[in-house]
Amino acid sequence: MNLKSERRGIHVDQSELLCKKGCGYYGNPAWQGFCSKCWREEYHKARQKQIQEDWELAERLQREEEEAYASSQSTQGAQSLTFSKFEEKKTNEKTRKVTTVKKFFTASSRTGAKKEIQEAKAPSPSINRQASIETDRVSKEFIEFLKTYHKSGQDIYKQCKLFLDTMNHKRALSIEEQSECAQDFYQNVAEKLQTRWKVPPEKVEKAMDQIEKYIMTRQYKYVFCPETTDDEKKDLAVQKRIRALHWVTPQMLCVPVNEEIPEVSDMVVKAITDIIEMDSKRVPRDKLACITKCSKHIFNAIKITKNEPASADDFLPTLIYIVLKGNPPRLQSNIQYITRFCNPSRLMTGEDGYYFTNLCCAVAFIEKLDAQSLNLSQEDFDRFMTGQTSPKKQESESFSPDVCLGVKQMYKNLDLLSQLNERQERIVNEAKKLEKDLIDWTDGITKEVQDIVEKYPLEIKPKNQALAAIDSENVENDKLPPPLQPQVYAG
């Protein structure tokens, strides 16, 4: 394997994680490097500009059609009138398409489209029952939580119900516009909590977390990986890409983690479990919590390996390695769901926002991974990607041509013996652990049995007397004759 003499490692300047507008918040690749606040401002400007251009185009087309209609009416007579009406109808169709943009800002009453979406995404009865149980549980928890807010709690509940009704009417809109509605709702409720309802700052964050949990538990099945987007296509592309990169080793990424240390190996397994578990959560905040737990396990693994606190330059390569090793399901859909419907304050600041931004960078790095990123030659990279060879096989063949076959075989045998020794030690340790668990289990069962016997002692009752025969009474006093004996009579 032709590696360069100096390994560069994966380095991302912390300034690159921040919003490119310079506001100081964390940016996001899904928002073209902006933070949530700046992205919404840019999005509104672009949308208003597009609306204005559409209106100008519609007015220009209408003027042209009217002029054409007037000229054709004066020159062509009755036959051209029919054609002009056809042109006018076509212009009206174009204008109607343009004015549809304006209708996006009002409540939609297109129940037919809503029914089609519901029928197309109708889940199985078992999933419906499970979702209904979880929804009921979250509703009860939300109501109990709002009771501590007294009068303002009732207003918060009314605002949430109004928002859910609005989202049900706007379900036919694009996912970006539904996301805009959710972000506006978060911002308005946070402002009302601080100004109108006079909620203390330390309670505002808790209230926003509960509000997000309540509304997104209900909206999850409609807004997570909707059919109107290409999220599912991106998920399949990322999964296919990660499978093709199965040969990437920690050394290629300069990952400062030694998995031969049992504690480090456990941390790596926990990190992979957390990143995979993210897909099972329904609330954006819970998905972020899984990313945070995964990241903390990574930092612990690096700290144990290096015997010193981990740095940001160590964290990102290890996170990339964890994603490659775990291949989390529906990774892009989860990232998009968090980006669209999470409380923006969580993504802009704090450790949740920092870890989420690094995860987005890790996915972007995997999508663009090439030979230069791994310090490989293009020839080796192509052979690894096509499966013609693997790094491990090539490492075993990296002896000099002058080395005799005996030395090669000796090193190969030593390597096998080392692997067998490690496996044997692992088996012995597991066997001792199993033996200890069995002894503890036996002692526990014995103690439980003794406790039960002492609490409920065994009482042996006397045996019931057998029922007497029907004619067993007064046998001695009846003086019955002896039984008849068979006799033979002469014929």
From TrEMBL:
<keyword id="KW-0254">Endocytosis</keyword>
<dbReference type="GO" id="GO:0008270">
    <property type="term" value="F:zinc ion binding"/>
</dbReference>
<dbReference type="GO" id="GO:0003677">
    <property type="term" value="F:DNA binding"/>
</dbReference>
<dbReference type="Pfam" id="PF01754">
    <property type="entry name" value="zf-A20"/>
</dbReference>
<keyword id="KW-0967">Endosome</keyword>
<dbReference type="InterPro" id="IPR002653">
    <property type="entry name" value="Znf_A20"/>
</dbReference>
<dbReference type="GO" id="GO:0031267">
    <property type="term" value="F:small GTPase binding"/>
</dbReference>
<keyword id="KW-0862">Zinc</keyword>
<feature type="domain" description="A20-type">
    <location>
        <begin position="13"/>
        <end position="47"/>
    </location>
</feature>
<protein>
    <recommendedName>
        <fullName>Rab5 GDP/GTP exchange factor</fullName>
    </recommendedName>
</protein>
<keyword id="KW-0963">Cytoplasm</keyword>
<dbReference type="GO" id="GO:0005829">
    <property type="term" value="C:cytosol"/>
</dbReference>
<dbReference type="Pfam" id="PF02204">
    <property type="entry name" value="VPS9"/>
</dbReference>
<dbReference type="GO" id="GO:0055037">
    <property type="term" value="C:recycling endosome"/>
</dbReference>
<dbReference type="GO" id="GO:0030139">
    <property type="term" value="C:endocytic vesicle"/>
</dbReference>
<dbReference type="InterPro" id="IPR041545">
    <property type="entry name" value="DUF5601"/>
</dbReference>
<keyword id="KW-0833">Ubl conjugation pathway</keyword>
<keyword id="KW-0813">Transport</keyword>
<dbReference type="GO" id="GO:0005085">
    <property type="term" value="F:guanyl-nucleotide exchange factor activity"/>
</dbReference>
<dbReference type="Pfam" id="PF18151">
    <property type="entry name" value="DUF5601"/>
</dbReference>
<dbReference type="InterPro" id="IPR003123">
    <property type="entry name" value="VPS9"/>
</dbReference>
<dbReference type="GO" id="GO:0006897">
    <property type="term" value="P:endocytosis"/>
</dbReference>
<dbReference type="InterPro" id="IPR045046">
    <property type="entry name" value="Vps9-like"/>
</dbReference>
<keyword id="KW-0832">Ubl conjugation</keyword>
<keyword id="KW-0007">Acetylation</keyword>
<dbReference type="GO" id="GO:0015031">
    <property type="term" value="P:protein transport"/>
</dbReference>
<keyword id="KW-0653">Protein transport</keyword>
<dbReference type="InterPro" id="IPR037191">
    <property type="entry name" value="VPS9_dom_sf"/>
</dbReference>
<dbReference type="GO" id="GO:0005769">
    <property type="term" value="C:early endosome"/>
</dbReference>
<keyword id="KW-0597">Phosphoprotein</keyword>
<keyword id="KW-0863">Zinc-finger</keyword>
<keyword id="KW-0479">Metal-binding</keyword>
<feature type="domain" description="VPS9">
    <location>
        <begin position="232"/>
        <end position="375"/>
    </location>
</feature>
<feature type="region of interest" description="Disordered">
    <location>
        <begin position="472"/>
        <end position="491"/>
    </location>
</feature>
